[in-house]
Structures are given as C-alpha cells and as structure tokens.
C-alpha cells in the first residue's frame, strides 16, 4: 500500500474518535459542561468551547489534512491534557488504560507533526503534505 494511502487511513482512524466526541459535545452542551466541571476543570463553559473546537473542528481539519502539522500539535497537547486531567488515576486500572491510550494517540499525532499529512490531503494538494527532511 502506498505511503499516502496509509497516512490517509491513519488520519481517518485517528480523527474518528475526535469528531465523534466533539459532535457529542455539540449535541449535549449541558451534559458535556457538567462532565467537564465534574472533572475539576476551571471555567467549565470555556473548557467546553475549547474542547468542541479542538475535538470537532480540529478533528475535521486533521481528517482532510489541512494545516496538519499545527492541528496535530494542538490535538497532541489537548490529548495529553485530557489524559492527565481526566484519566490519570494510578489507583484505577481502567482509568490508567485510558490515560495510556491518550499517550499513544498523542504519539501518533506527533508523527504527523514531523511528517505532514501526505499527498492525499489538502496540504498535499498545496505542496505541504510531504514528509519532513532532516
């Protein structure tokens, strides 16, 4: 399978969780804001808007591969923050699995920070999707 197709498949697989989660927050702002508040985030209403912007709109941008390196960096940082803020409970094995999942997803995003989205993306059509050379 060509590299560009693999990168597209990876973007689809990774973006799905963020788009779905962001859409769920859009459809239930009160519930999402309450969940955010329950997890102790300051200014839950603001955190809600940040979460929707990053998850839903960032997920869509990542999916189509627009400004992929910057979007991937934002999603990696968001994913690490959510992992630490929501799932890091060393005494709870289930939550630690979610925490480690967030670490793995952030690592996947970092590969896109380093390499771009590939040819099958908006960035690729604009000549920005090629792998970095260093």
Summarize the structure.
This protein is an all-alpha fold. The chain has six helices and no strands. The protein has one domain (3-125).
Helices and strands in order, then pairings?
Layout: H1 3-27, H2 29-38, H3 44-64, H4 68-87, H5 93-115, H6 122-125
Helix pairs in contact: 1-2, 1-3, 2-3, 3-4, 4-5
Protein architecture, described:
The protein starts with a helix and ends in a 9-residue tail after the last helix. The protein contains six helices and no strands. By secondary structure, the protein is mainly alpha-helical. It has one domain. 77% of the residues lie in helices and 0% in strands. Helix 1 (3-27) packs across helix 2 (29-38), helix 1 (3-27) runs antiparallel to helix 3 and helix 3 crosses helix 4. It has helices spanning 3-27, 29-38, 44-64, 68-87, 93-115, 122-125. The model has no long low-confidence stretch (mean pLDDT 94).
Over the alpha carbons, how many angstroms does the gyration radius reach?
Answer: 16 Å
Largest sheet report: none
* Shape summary: globular
**Average of pLDDT:** 94
Helix content: over 70%
Structural class, from helix and strand content?
A: mainly alpha
What are the segments in which pLDDT stays under 50 over at least 5 consecutive residues?
A: none
Oligomer: single chain
> Count of helices?
6
How much of the residues is beta strand, in percent? under 5%
- The total beta strand count reads 0
SSE ordering: HHHHHH
